[in-house]
């Protein structure tokens, strides 16, 4: 009782088309599609405008000590 059946939705669709007319309805959908395309284009342009991140130079990373062994190296030597 609370939900609408397929027949109800068909009647609502026919009434909307009668009220707005076929060409007016298709024009509205075309405008919605253009708006979505413009939004996507604007979002893509925003990504292009951002400068590339620059690398911050700091202290060089220390090289590991020759006596230091990783877990994988120890496991390989034991076999």
Describe the secondary structure blueprint for this structure:
Layout: H1 6-20, H2 22-49, H3 71-78
Give a quick set of tags describing it.
elongated; 79 residues; 3 helices; mainly alpha
Overview of the molecule:
The chain has 79 residues and is an all-alpha fold. It has a domain at 22-50. Helix content is 65%, strand content 0%. It has helices at 6-20, 22-49, 71-78. Helix 1 crosses helix 2 (22-49). The longest helix is centred in the middle third of the chain and has 28 residues, at 22-49. It is elongated.
Major β-sheet profile: none
Shape annotation = elongated
Total E-strand runs: 0
- Order of helical and strand elements: HHH
The share of residues in extended strands comes to under 5%
Helix amount: 55-70%
Unreliable runs, pLDDT <50, ≥5 residues?
A: none
Number of helices: 3
Structural class: mainly alpha
Assembly classification: single chain
Q: What would you report as the Rg, rounded to the nearest angstrom?
A: 32 Å
Cα end-to-end separation? 73 Å
Mean pLDDT: 77
Region (Disordered): 42-79
Pfam families: TatA_B_E (PF02416)
Family: Belongs to the TatA/E family.
Keywords: Cell inner membrane, Cell membrane, Membrane, Protein transport, Translocation, Transmembrane, Transmembrane helix, Transport
């Amino acid at each position: 009782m609370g939900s609408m059946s397929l027949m109800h939705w068909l009647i609502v669709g026919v009434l909307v088309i009668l009220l707005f007319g076929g060409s007016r309805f298709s024009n509205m959908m075309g405008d919605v599609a253009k708006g979505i395309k413009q939004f996507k284009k604007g979002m893509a342009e925003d990504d292009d405008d951002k400068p590339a991140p620059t690398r911050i130079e700091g202290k060089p990373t220390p090289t590991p000590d020759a006596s230091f062994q990783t877990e994988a190296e120890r496991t390989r030597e034991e076999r």
